[in-house]
């Protein structure tokens, strides 16, 4: 399980059809007791050959001259925090705003508001 606990079963129900969004999928089911959930859909990694391989990643195949012959593996997942340190008392560049048609300006305004609402951007604190 994702938390590191192991759950075992010796029952496999083969050849079941799961339909999602009118798309049928042939799957095998393994019944297990898992809290209050009626159904849990998961991919079981049987062995190392089921793991994502570097040579199957599209960008690695498209640009082979950029990547080493023997890749050591994917980098570890990291939390990235960064900031841009502003120069004290720096003045903004004096430029007129980019001109857009009213319909495009409205679309830009809507997209900026959506990004601000989601917390991806915030108003500038620079002068």
UniProtKB/TrEMBL annotation:
Gene3D superfamilies: HIV Type 1 Reverse Transcriptase, subunit A, domain 1. The keyword Nucleotidyltransferase applies. One of its GO terms (molecular function) is RNA-directed DNA polymerase activity. Keywords: Nucleotidyltransferase, RNA-directed DNA polymerase, Transferase. SUPFAM superfamilies: DNA/RNA polymerases. The keyword Transferase applies. It comes from the Eukaryota. InterPro entries: DNA/RNA_pol_sf, RTL1-rel. This is Putative reverse transcriptase domain-containing protein. The lineage of its organism: Eukaryota, Viridiplantae, Streptophyta, Embryophyta, Tracheophyta.
